[in-house]
Amino acid sequence: MKQFYTVLFLAILGIVIGVATIFYGNAPAEAKTKPILTIQPPFSSYVAGTGMVEASSTNISVGTPVSGIITKLAVNVGDHVK
To answer: Cα–Cα distance between 6 and 13 in angstroms, integer?
Structure first.
């Protein structure tokens, strides 16, 4: 009879441990988020872009072979260029 109660106790203990593991083991972990540092651009306004200009006659690729910052502009507003 003592062996029966021992087996019954161990079975109930196993069920309790299994249920506790299901409830507490599946709890979602808290997400650890880090703040994102934003970098201020060095200029108050700027224009950037690449792409395709679709004209009525032909398509024109727009872009440069090297990337960088324009430090000098050789034309003025209203100048005609080719």
So the answer is: 10
Q: Tokens at residue 44, please?
A: 């108050």
Alpha-carbon distance 19 to 13, whole Å? 10
Type of residue at 73: L
Residues in the chain, total: 82
Q: Provide the 3-class DSSP secondary structure of residue 40.
A: coil
Residue with tokens 């000098």: 72
Q: Decide if 52 contacts 61 (C-beta within 8 A).
A: yes
Q: Does this model's pTM top 0.70? A: no
Q: What is the mean pLDDT of each run of 10 residues along the chain (82 residues)?
A: 92 94 77 82 73 73 75 85 78
The continuous run of DSSP H or E covering 20 comes out as: helix 2-25
| Distance (Å, whole) CA 40 – CA 54 | 33
